[in-house]
């Protein structure tokens, strides 16, 4: 009897409390910004928070920054003002561009990066085929 009374009291107390809401972690931290600056071409890394392939691309480029000078700038495609980039690249990050011209996506090797930076430094870099555009595929 005592247990039943305690259980009823507990249920009544819970019923009178306001409902609990779970805090949603919707806060977004942009990863946009200059990663490092150097002489030579500027490489844009289209990325988002938590992208491990993007981290690998950054590591490859960072290893070349003294031998093949360049600047590296991250562009977070999830930033509110980057909706068009999100629509294009959401399935294919990392996407990389050199001086605003599409270069490659997904994985980059040190050899490919060195060749592209050397081409850009010599003024001979040309857009590569295969720039992703998810918005075109979703129409």
From TrEMBL:
Keywords assigned by UniProt, alphabetized: Electron transport, Transport
In terms of superkingdom, the source organism counts as: Eukaryota
Record's keyword annotation contains Transport: yes
**InterPro entries noted in UniProt:** Glutaredoxin-like, Glutaredoxin-like_YDR286C, Thioredoxin-like_sf
Keyword field contains tRNA processing: no
Listed Basic and acidic residues bias regions? 124-139
**Where in the sequence is the signal peptide annotated?**
none
What's a Pfam family this protein contains?
Glrx-like
- Which Gene3D superfamilies does the record associate with it? Glutaredoxin (3.40.30.10)
Q: Where is this region: Disordered?
A: 119-139
Q: Record's family?
A: Belongs to the glutaredoxin family.
Q: List the protein's name.
A: Glutaredoxin-like protein
């Amino acid at each position: 009897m005592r247990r039943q009374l305690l259980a009823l009291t507990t249920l009544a107390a819970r019923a009178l409390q306001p409902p609990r809401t779970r805090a949603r972690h919707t806060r977004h931290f942009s990863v946009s910004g200059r990663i490092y600056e150097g002489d030579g071409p500027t490489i844009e890394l289209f990325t988002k928070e938590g992208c491990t392939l993007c981290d690998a691309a950054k590591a490859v480029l960072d290893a070349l920054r003294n031998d093949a000078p360049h600047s590296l700038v991250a562009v977070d495609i999830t930033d509110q003002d980057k909706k068009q980039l999100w629509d294009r690249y959401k399935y294919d990050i990392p996407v990389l561009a050199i001086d605003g011209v599409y270069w490659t996506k997904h994985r980059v090797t040190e050899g490919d990066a060195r060749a592209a930076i050397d081409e850009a430094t010599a003024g001979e870099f040309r857009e590569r085929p295969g720039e992703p555009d998810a918005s075109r595929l979703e129409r």
